[in-house]
Amino acid sequence: MDLDLHLQRGFDRVELVSGTIGNPRDGRMCLMSLVAFLAGEDHSDSPGCASPLIQAFAVRINDSMPHAMRQRLKPFAPRIIGTNDGLDELRARVLSGALAEGNFLEATDQYWAEPKTPAQRRHSGLRRLWRWLRRDINQRLFYCALSCGDRTYMADHAAHLIARLARSAPNAQAQEAYWNTAIAILDRLCDVGAPAGREPGVQAERLKQLEATPQLRQDTSVRGETVLPLSPSLWWRSAGD
């Protein structure tokens, strides 16, 4: 039985949660604590095996995503193991390129544009000021992400910007597009320094322990959102291929 199948069975017993590192014994963990668990490290949301840049980006995205969307991050856990390899300068360049390609600054300007209809203009006043202030925050995050000398802060600013744009998106389709972009960026960051076919550093005993965790119900609703099962095609390449 190959490693992919063991991982799939293990991931079926994991629920990624936000704002906490969770508890491996009941299968509820944040993404980075799942990384630590699979790598055989002590329970933590800052595993030593992980790139600090990837960790900063992943923590913010994990904590900001809707519950069902967050479950799509599971396949990244084994890919993050071993990324503390001294290549974060290259990852920072990849992240900068992804931000520039994504036209995030234009997105903030488009969404926070002046109201067009008379009804919208009647309610300008404080709402217009609030729009301007929020747009300014997004612009600052964008410029900080591109110019910050600290690569960890850069990744956090980038993830914070994507999360803000997703939460303020005008509809569900636009929101999903931002989260898909975040997943695609994480995919590109994990690819840095990863030769094709590299075996993930998943500890066999930890994987067995995960498989022994009681099966999570796939129809369980958390905060009004359904936990959806992952497609087998997503175990190693989550969105971005």
Task: Produce a short descriptive summary.
With 241 residues, the chain is mainly alpha-helical. The chain has one domain. It contains twelve helices and four strands; from the N terminus they run H-E-E-H-H-H-H-H-H-H-H-H-H-H-E-E.
Features:
single chain; 241 residues; mainly alpha; two-stranded antiparallel ribbon; 12 helices; 4 strands; 56% helix; 3% strand; globular; disordered C terminus
Describe it.
By secondary structure, this protein is mainly alpha-helical. It has one domain (3-234). 56% of the residues lie in helices and 3% in strands. The strands form two sheets. It has a two-stranded parallel sheet with strand order 1-2. It has a two-stranded antiparallel ribbon with strand order 3-4. Strand 3 and strand 4 (225-226) form a beta hairpin. The longest helix is centred in the middle third of the chain and has 23 residues, at 125-147. The model is unreliable at 108-115, 120-126 and 218-241 (pLDDT under 50).
Layout of secondary structure:
Blueprint: H1 3-11, E1 15-16, E2 28-29, H2 31-38, H3 52-64, H4 67-70, H5 76-80, H6 88-101, H7 104-111, H8 118-122, H9 125-147, H10 151-167, H11 172-191, H12 204-211, E3 221-222, E4 225-226
Parallel strand pairs: 1-2
Antiparallel strand pairs: 3-4
Series of secondary-structure elements, N-terminal to C-terminal: HEEHHHHHHHHHHHEE
- The side-by-side strand order for the widest beta sheet comes to 1-2
Please report which band the strand proportion falls in: under 5%, 5-15%, 15-25%, 25-35%, 35-45% or over 45%.
under 5%
Total count of strands: 4
Count of domains: 1
Rounded radius of gyration (Å): 19 Å
Structural class: mainly alpha
How much helical structure, as a percent, in the residues? 55-70%
Q: Which geometry do the CA atoms define?
A: globular
Q: Overall pLDDT, averaged?
A: 77
The largest sheet, given as strand count, sense and whether it forms a barrel, is: 2 strands, parallel
- Treating each run of at least 4 consecutive H or I residues as one helix, how many helices? 12
The rounded distance between the terminal residues' Cα atoms is 26 Å
Given as residue ranges, the uncertain stretches (5+ residues, pLDDT < 50) are: 108-115, 120-126, 218-241
